[in-house]
Amino acid sequence: MDAVDAPDAFVIGVDYGTLSGRAVVVRVRDGKELGSGVYDYPHAVVTDALPEDVAGRGADGKILRLPGEWALQVPNDYRDVLRNAVPAAVADAGIDLAAVVGIATDFTACTMVPVAADGTPLNELDRFRNRPHAYVKLWRHHAAQPQADRINKLAAERGEEWLPRYGGLISSEWEFAKGLQLLEEDPEAYAEMDHWVEAADWIVWQLCGLYVRNACTAGYKGIYQDGSYPSEDFLAELNPDFKDFVSSKLDHTIGRLGDAAGTLTAEAAAWTGLPEGIAVAVGNVDAHVTAPAAKAVDPGQLVAIMGTSTCHVMNGTELREVPGMCGVVDGGIVDGLWGYEAGQSGVGDIFGWFTKYGVPPEYHQAAEEAGLGIHEYLTELASRQVIGEHGLMALDWHSGNRSVLVDHELSGIVVGQTLATRPEDTYRALLEATAFGTRTIVDAFRDAGVPVKEFIVAGGLLKNPLLMQIYADVTGLQLSTIGSAQGPALGSAIHAAVAAGRYADIREAAAAMGSEPGEVYTPIPANVAAYEELFREYKTLHDYFGRGANDVMHRLKAIQRRAAGPLLASDAASVSAVEVSA
Prior knowledge:
The structure is a single chain. By secondary structure, the protein is α/β, with parallel strands linked by helices. It is 37% helix and 18% strand. The chain has 20 helices and 24 strands. The strands form 7 sheets. Strands 1, 2, 3, 6, 12, 13 and 14 form a 7-stranded mixed sheet that branches. A 7-stranded mixed sheet has the order 17-18-16-15-21-22-23, with helices on both faces. The longest helix is centred in the C-terminal third of the chain and has 25 residues, at 423-447. It is globular. Residues 1-6 and 569-582 have low confidence and may be disordered.
């Protein structure tokens, strides 16, 4: 059916971010966004201790404290997005529910859920609710770095053919490293787990009652290349008990992006208020669905989805090995092209951390008196500076480095601070550092023969004009922003329209439903020259701390890990971690 035959058909796109889920109602024929709803996860990101309202307490009445580098979530928060954000979006749109033909979701990745055979998360089983490894491991859970290091070392020694597809390094954020950590630190939970599921697929399972593994996360996060995963021989050499990880915990039917995974169940219809039986699209990743929303499905169009982190995605006509990339997957974004992914683990998170812990009260008070948020206030102060005036250089590794070093043992640093340094100086240096990180990624693509022709930004950070101009000046590329404030959710809606049969494929749907550009930022020649000098200094620091000349950051992480102790648990009563009385 052509979209013009059903002008009043609508689809729902749901974007699961790090802290909240956002739903948008979109008209199929032209992509017009008619209503939206947002739901903040009640438990947010669990980094310090398991939430008592879910986990309860141990038999000894103590609350479990998590070691450093842990980042968990509560899976029922994701269901609550369906119960709250979707009905709110529909009410905001004021549409006839009978005209909704499909729903699609996207998720942060790699976010993993250990589940029983029927899809029940392990933390919802009574005997596992006080066990940290039974919860969702969010994408920014970096405690599996030692396992990732072993995977990389062994893969390099064996000359595994899949390793170059990931720039030569597998991340601690991904499925295999996190799965190996689960096995080695809580073997009982690992044995109880029937499926190790990407949250992108788990939420689709909740919607349609069928477990379908999406091609995007399988390829980028699950080391699925050319129809196969790493061999049992490889896995057994990592750990004999890990030998059947793929066959017993991971492998499943893989669905093509834009296809229907199934139809909405009666239970999910009751949660959302949507009609039972509408199409539910195969799951996807928040970054990758945004490319169609930005009408960026042609080779050379680099889309940066900038929020708490940044993911960079781009299509190419040829397979190239790009050092330090998150992966290249055949059809990873759209069919018929090689989808490339890179990223930065910390961007908005870094800015948020600094405003929370590095800005004195008088600045917050001044911002309030000026009627501004603290980010707006600092941006206004920083925008008055000449490039280089603050005398600082920062490395944007506060959450590790995803590309091009793929090393989450790295940490942030600011060089050049004096007693004259003010918060706006450091804030601007951090903005610039993330731009230098993106420039490093752009250069890596170009050097590997994958040209970047356009630079398009989506996500919440596009609202900061100083940041956007800095990115244009640092990269030397004209930067355009996506016109939609809900890029990933719009991208999911586009996939829902294809899954519902309203368009032949993603390209056709993107042409009709994608967002027009918003603001455009052109590089200023004088700024480009000034930042070129600073970028050379960034590269010096980048290579000195990131490529082995000085591994002080690794040594500090090792000391921290020894001080905190590992989280080894066979049951709630024998947790080998720091416990404190409430």
